[in-house]
Specification:
Elements (H helix, E strand, L loop, with lengths): L14 E7 L6 E8 L3 H6 L3 H5 L6 H23 L10 H17 L4 E5 L1
Antiparallel strand pairs: 1-2, 1-3
């Protein structure tokens, strides 16, 4: 699946869809979606590029980045909560859970490739 934008009226991307693609059978594994409103938190945690610019890359290459990001979130969750969007779409706790769950899937399937739509 190609990287496709889902623009608002202002032309901004509103969410990230990310999954794993099996190289042997082209089956999609998992399907994660979260609001772009927390992208600043992911930048602080050092995983923005691993999430937004990894289409087609081997999953094994982003696992170390996601591990560091999960560690960062765990150590800085209170500070990240201060960045919660005013509009209520997404929050630090949800972004943290998203990262934990996506990392777990990546660890279970390290020989896949990243698929994403943003």
């Amino acid at each position: 699946m190609p990287v496709v934008g889902v623009p608002t009226r202002a032309g901004e991307i509103v969410s990230l869809d990310i999954w794993l693609e099996c190289p042997c059978c082209s089956t999609d594994i998992g399907d994660f979606n979260y609001t772009h409103n927390v992208s600043g938190m992911w930048s602080k945690a050092g995983c923005y590029d691993a999430l937004y610019n990894s289409h087609g890359q081997p999953t094994s290459e982003i696992i170390p980045v996601l591990e560091k990001a999960v560690t960062y979130f765990a150590a800085n969750l209170d500070n990240l909560r201060a960045m919660n969007p005013e509009n209520g779409w997404g929050d630090a706790d949800g972004a943290f859970k998203f990262l934990e769950n996506f990392l777990e899937l990546c660890e279970q399937h390290p020989n896949t490739k990243i698929g994403l739509s943003k």
